[in-house]
């Protein structure tokens, strides 16, 4: 029995990056032999075991044979005669197909170390086309390593897979799993760009794909269309080190602009409502977690009004904060503001500006929210003889508190504000 460290641990060590969970391949062993040594089997589709002390994963060397469409259409063969090279051959990219033996010797049959030095993402072999998940992984690694390029022959294979309909067999849960991981990488826009270049974006996220070529307003850079702005917004969310719900909301925030009639370009009046339906359908199709879905829908519907917070009447601010449930869900509201900030930063400076202007919305809204919190709702309820009048009285009291707070905290801004 021979044990090797494989995959990402070897890659990251060569790149000088922090090493995370270590994966191992075991050659020359059987499931019975592993269990006899105290390993606990956890793999259902193929033999994977947990070390009795470290709990790291140890997988028996295996090969895969294509038997059908999609990422589940494989027959797995794990046996003592399967070599390390056979096991590495089934992996996606050369940089993930390296191993080290117990003495620390690098085993690199497919040129992964050379591709690391050249900063190239290249498929291991022709079997790449057999698993559509590899397209998503390719795009995800492009987002993780922004200075790596995709080998032309790998992109050609990815396009072929799309043309042959392989990506159409991916189940929503697996698509979301890979997308979510890619959104959390260093430059998530590259994931979207690679998916678009090979044609997979139009199959997996057609709502996003349709944004490219749709013009933005004239105060944006003239070369920035809605698709590129979306990518800039996504990367702005990454620079904020935002959580996954914020990054997904950034990806979705302008979906409605794809449905703006061309005669109205570059203006997109009402795109928030159009985008809400598109985002709702996208979230349902991908079976998103509730926190990602809810924040995306809030961002799509309210980001335009939030951007205009410094111009809104106190009563309108109160309505906005009530509709977004900011009082009861303050952490989610903070994430909503993060998504809107990413949208603002994703515009860049206008052609005649040397820098991006100050974003006034968050401090104004947080000041208004604090003022609303200080309103004694219980006292209003007690003083109201007719319960049907409570919502209006409470709204009026909150608007008055917000007006007072803004006049103190933002006097110059408040003087120019409609009362």
Secondary-structure blueprint:
Elements: E1 2-6, H1 8-15, E2 23-27, H2 31-36, E3 40-41, E4 48-50, E5 57-60, E6 62-66, E7 74-78, H3 84-89, E8 99-100, E9 106-107, H4 112-118, E10 120-121, H5 133-144, E11 149-150, H6 152-163, H7 172-183, H8 189-198, H9 200-204, H10 206-209, H11 226-239, H12 244-252, H13 271-286, H14 290-307, H15 314-323, H16 330-345, H17 361-373, H18 377-383, H19 390-409, H20 411-415
Parallel strand pairs: 2-5, 10-11
Antiparallel strand pairs: 1-2, 1-8, 3-4, 4-5, 6-7, 8-9
Helix pairs in contact: 5-7, 5-8, 8-11, 11-12, 11-16, 12-14, 12-16, 13-14, 14-16, 15-17, 15-19, 17-19
Rg on CA atoms, Å: 26 Å
- Report the structural category: alpha+beta
Mean pLDDT: 91
What percent strand? 5-15%
CA distance, first residue to last residue: 79 Å
State the helicity in percent bands.
40-55%
Weakly predicted, low-confidence segments: none
Number of strands: 11
What would the principal axes of the Cα set say about the shape?
A: elongated
Name the descriptors.
alpha+beta; single chain; two-stranded antiparallel ribbon; 419 residues; elongated; seven-stranded mixed sheet
């Amino acid at each position: 029995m021979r044990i090797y460290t494989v995959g990402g641990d070897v890659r990251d060590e060569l790149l000088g990056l922090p090493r995370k969970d270590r994966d191992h391949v075991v050659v020359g062993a059987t499931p019975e032999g592993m269990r006899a040594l105290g390993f606990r089997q956890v793999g259902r589709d193929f033999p994977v075991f947990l070390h009795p002390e470290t709990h790291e994963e140890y997988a028996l060397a295996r090969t895969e044979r294509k038997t059908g469409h999609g990422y589940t259409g494989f027959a797995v063969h794990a046996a003592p005669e399967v070599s390390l090279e056979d096991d590495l051959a089934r992996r996606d990219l050369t940089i993930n197909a390296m191993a080290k033996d117990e003495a620390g010797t690098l085993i690199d049959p497919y040129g992964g170390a050379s591709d690391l030095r050249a900063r190239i993402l290249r498929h291991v072999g022709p079997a790449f086309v057999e698993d559509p998940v590899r397209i998503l992984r390719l795009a995800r690694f492009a987002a993780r390593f922004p200075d790596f390029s995709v080998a032309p022959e790998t992109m050609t294979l990815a396009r072929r897979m799309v043309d042959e309909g392989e990506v159409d067999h991916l189940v929503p849960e697996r698509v979301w799993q890979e997308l979510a991981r890619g959104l959390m990488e260093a430059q998530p826009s590259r994931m979207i760009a690679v998916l678009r270049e090979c044609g997979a974006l139009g199959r997996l996220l057609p709502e996003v794909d349709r944004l490219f070529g749709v013009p933005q307003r004239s105060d944006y850079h003239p070369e920035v269309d809605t698709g590129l702005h979306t990518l800039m917004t996504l990367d702005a969310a990454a620079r904020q080190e935002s959580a996954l719900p914020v990054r997904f909301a950034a990806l979705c925030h302008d979906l409605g602009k794809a449905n703006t009639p061309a005669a109205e370009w570059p203006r997109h009046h009402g795109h928030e409502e159009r985008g809400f339906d598109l985002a709702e359908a996208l979230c349902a199709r991908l079976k998103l977690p509730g926190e990602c879905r809810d924040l995306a829908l809030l961002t799509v519907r309210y980001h335009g009004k939030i951007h205009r917070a410094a111009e809104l009447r106190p009563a309108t601010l109160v309505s906005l904060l009530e509709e977004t449930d900011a009082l009861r869900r303050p952490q989610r509201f903070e994430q909503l503001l993060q998504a809107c900030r990413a949208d603002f930063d994703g515009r860049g400076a206008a052609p005649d500006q040397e820098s991006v202007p100050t974003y006034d919305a968050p401090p104004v809204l947080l000041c208004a929210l604090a003022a609303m919190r200080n309103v004694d709702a219980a006292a209003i309820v007690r003083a109201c003889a007719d319960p049907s009048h409570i919502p209006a009285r409470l709204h009026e009291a909150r608007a008055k508190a917000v007006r007072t707070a803004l006049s103190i905290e933002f006097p110059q801004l408040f003087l120019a504000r409609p009362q």
